[in-house]
Amino acid sequence: MSRIIKFFIAPDETSAASVLASGPEGTYETVTLGNFLVEFSVLEWEELTTGTSFDALLDAGEPRSVARDGGCEVFAVSEPLLRELARVDRLRITELAEGWKRMRCEDGDDLDDEPAREILTEVSELARAANNQGSGLYCWVV
Questions:
Q1: Among 71, 70, 49, 53, which residue's Cα sits nearest to residue 62?
Q2: Is beta strand 5-10 parallel, antiparallel or unpaired with respect to 136-141?
Q3: pLDDT tens-digit map of 69-89
Q4: pLDDT digits (tens, 9 = 90+) for 43-71
Q5: Terminal CA-to-CA distance of the chain, rounded, Å?
Q6: Residue pair 91/75 in contact by the 8 Å Cβ criterion
């Protein structure tokens, strides 16, 4: 099953939820990514950046859905992850990509170094912009 993944900046959850049917492109600053398990990945990124365990994040209801209809969903990137991604540098991106690759490999998935770095770089740049604007970071998945 192929998925479309778009991380985007929105001022609040209500605004983010409003793009459920049509997607954020053309309304908000967006990064479009390929097909991967984004819900699990943001939890892995948060575990790697904050030290909060994957299970604790799941128990806390992360990633928090702000809108859902059938196979389409908008979820919020947590504030702690947004802050951490907004401040990473190239060296930290490489470390996070290596950690993420290890986690994916442990679950039997293949993840190459370069795509992992590219994804984390693009999302961190968007997180930095969201943080600078005082906005939230969201993900639209269909």
A1: 53
A2: antiparallel
A3: 988 999 999 999 999 999 999
A4: 999 999 999 999 999 999 999 999 999 88
A5: 10
A6: no
140 token code pair: 């639209």
AA letter at 1: M
Neighbouring CB atoms inside 10 A of 116's CB total: 21
Whether omega before 115 lies within 30 degrees of 0, making that bond cis, reads no
Q: Which two tokens stand for residue 134?
A: 């005082």
Token pair recorded at residue 5: 């993944």
Taking the CA atoms of 51, 55, 59 and 64 in sequence, report the sign of the dihedral they define: positive
62, 97 contact by CB (below 8 A): no
**3-state secondary structure at position 138:** strand
